[in-house]
């Protein structure tokens, strides 16, 4: 069962074309990893899918659970079950983590969750992530370390239970123990009903999550797809080989 089908997706930002024809299909139960050099367009792909207003779609289609994703507003995309963990989570002074999570859950599910049960569930999920409960009372991301912000993103993911979660470099800024906790949690959150797209630079996460597919994104295009052995190849060769292959084709 297909969750998302991206075909020939092209986009520009500030008059510059970034995505140059992305094709990617993610089915239920699958974990996909996208790797690629800096500036390849990885975050752009995530932002275009989420509907970031800076990015203009030039061409292509995106089917999300039978609907035209590109035709939906940002909040409609979230309600339909799309979740993006940002590379740089924003600080939101005045809104506590607890309030944020509860409101976000209500926005996405249409029902305000019951306080006591919700608290119990969230605290359990925080314990799994090695997060202190007192963060519930803190303002969202304010004064959080890089690692705490990223854990908080995964906490949101576990609360919102999305159909497709896109995690953009959730490993950056994390120490090795936090990386393990975060990606073990992501692996646990993977089930037969959802899809997960992990964007990363960091091969070590493959010790904790088991992707079904690995894709290499170079210069706005997926230049190679394979299984986990492709990540091992990247580790050995770096991206230069893939860049050269791509340049030879164009
Ligand atoms: P990656 O995540 O693969 O490192 P990005 O998708 O963040 O790369 O960026 C791809 C290119 O698009 C870069 O050249 C970047 O500067 C440019 N870009 C991305 N977002 C914006 C934006 N909002 N305004 C201007 N340029 C942008
Ligand atoms: Mg699976
Ligand atoms: Mg990026």
Automatic annotation (TrEMBL):
SUPFAM superfamilies linked to this entry: P-loop containing nucleoside triphosphate hydrolases (SSF52540)
Keyword Endoplasmic reticulum carried by entry: no
InterPro entries for this protein: ABC_transporter-like_ATP-bd, ABC_transporter-like_CS, FeS-cluster_ATPase_SufC, P-loop_NTPase
PROSITE patterns attached to this UniProt entry: ABC_TRANSPORTER_1, ABC_TRANSPORTER_2
Keywords, comma-separated and alphabetical: ATP-binding, Nucleotide-binding
Positions of the ABC transporter domain: 4-244
PANTHER family tied to this protein: ABC TRANSPORTER I FAMILY MEMBER 6, CHLOROPLASTIC (PTHR43204:SF1)
Family of this protein: Belongs to the ABC transporter superfamily. Ycf16 family.
Protein name: Fe-S cluster assembly ATPase SufC
Source organism per UniProt: Fusibacter bizertensis
